[in-house]
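Example A, followed by Example B.
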Amino acid sequence: MTAKKASSGGTFRKFIVAMVIILIIALGFTGLNYYLKYFSPNVTDKQEYLYIHTGSDFNAVYKTIQEQGMVKDTASFYKAAENMNYVSRVKPGRYHLRNGMSNRKLINMLASGTQEPVTLNFHNLRLKEEFAGFVAKKIEPDSTAIIRLLDSTSFVQQYGFTTDNLYTMFLPNSYQLYWNTTPEKFFKRMYANYEKFWTPERKQKAAAINLTPIEVSVLASIVDAEALHDDEMPAVAGLYLNRLKKGMKLEADPTVIFAQNDFTIKRVLNRYLSINSPYNTYMHTGLPPGPIMMPSVNAVNSVLDYQKNDYIYMCAKADFSGYHAFATNMADHLVNAHKFQQALNDRNIKK
């Protein structure tokens, strides 16, 4: 009897030990599976950014991740996303992927919308279409959506602009914004920067020369197009302000080139001066209805802090240095103009 009891007890202990071992193995397997699903490195280095478009659902995100090889184990990512309820928390944006990120870190980043902003640097873009195309390369909205607002009279009136002069609102600078910024929010951000730029001091300087901030920027665009060197901008601005005060036409060659919409022109010929355009300052007195390019901040400040001079005329110097020969009377101007025309002829520049 005793031997049988001992044998039965030993068998039970072996059973218990076996069960414990099985439990330990099961827990270890579960723990390993949990680690692999949530904490092991899974993100690859095949793509630096994941772009999630506005309106995308989880299936679209998963398809992008799968097709572009953004994770090593797509099955574990899918399961982790389901368990972490990311399926119902998809947020659009531009997300920076780091090689070796775990599913947990990746999903937390996506679900919280912790995206990396884009840096937008723009300056001296000539046309609205160029600007819209440049911006569209940096943020989600396409150039058509941006142009639509640029050309919307009712929209731009909210900010006190017309479709002709709205371009003066965009001040060249470096901006950080989110990739999925809407066109409306983009414009709102640009306007906030415009308002910040036009301090009471700058507005006072504009009023002192009988110009509105918009008119200052329109004139600055001409100064910017005319002056190759920043240190000459105040003198050029002073000349144009002298013409405005006297009621003279500005007769600025860059406005004629803009009216012609031919920016390859190097020599403004007489036949160009008769083009019927509100931007042709040889034909119309005063400022054109809008800027002929995006004016730089230097050009705007040069108009506000213009050089007080008596210049009425200017002509590019014959040495092609990019500077101008200024004159206070027509006789001296004709001498300067003849020298430059001769230099163009010598170089066989006909247009």
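Example B, a separate protein, is given below in the same form.
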Amino acid sequence: MSDLILSVENGVATLTMNRPDARNALSEAMRTDLAKALHDVEQDPVVRCVVLTGAGEHFMAGGDVKNMAESLKGKSPEEIRKSFLFRIHDLHPIMFAMRRMPKPVIASCRGAAAGAGVSMALACDLIIAAEDAFFTLAYCRIGTSPDGSSSFHLPRAVGIKKAMEIALLGDRFDAQTAKDIGMVNYVVKTEDLAAETDKLASRLANGPTHAYGNTKALFYRSLESEFEAQLQAEAEYFADCASRDDFREGVTAFGEKRAPVFSGR
């Protein structure tokens, strides 16, 4: 059975991390499959929104700690260092792909999002969480610092002091707390998570896909851009959108006082 399931329906690609017996802990196969699947859906013109979720009752409980413990046996510190450098660099294409993806990416979370599970969710554009979802960065509990881009995304989402608290204490907090501090966009009843995720994904999949891609690029580059460069990028991206079918449809629909029907082009 595959560690990742990819399905595409009505313009929405759903990537389901599929190790429910291990709370979907990240395996080598899952890393490889997820990187490939993200590349495939990025290139697929049928896909206009991506959902990342976990099989069973949990989103993703981080790295496979039991496997990590096994990997230490009989190795020198230098061998361990090289092994984990490779292992963590192997995760980076996933984060790059979600950031680069010219389509909205939604994390749909229930149950545990721990360690790399938090990192994975934060790398998505939006997070919708069930009431039973809980979050813990957890790295300090196994004596290491964060990876998976959480050290980049978390301070920008919640502020440096709150990020320090979350990382240094490793405490667990619920979905409503995550929403209150700016980590999560929506909290819904657990039994409604699938339906509410579908509703949000459908709305985005029927939106102006190219404009969404430009919006993502603008917002993410703004984290590191100077003011003048950002304004120039805004002008270029707007002009690019204005040359597309969706802009013509949007302004025409506005004039005709009807809802636009976007094609994603």
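On Example B: The mean pLDDT is 95.
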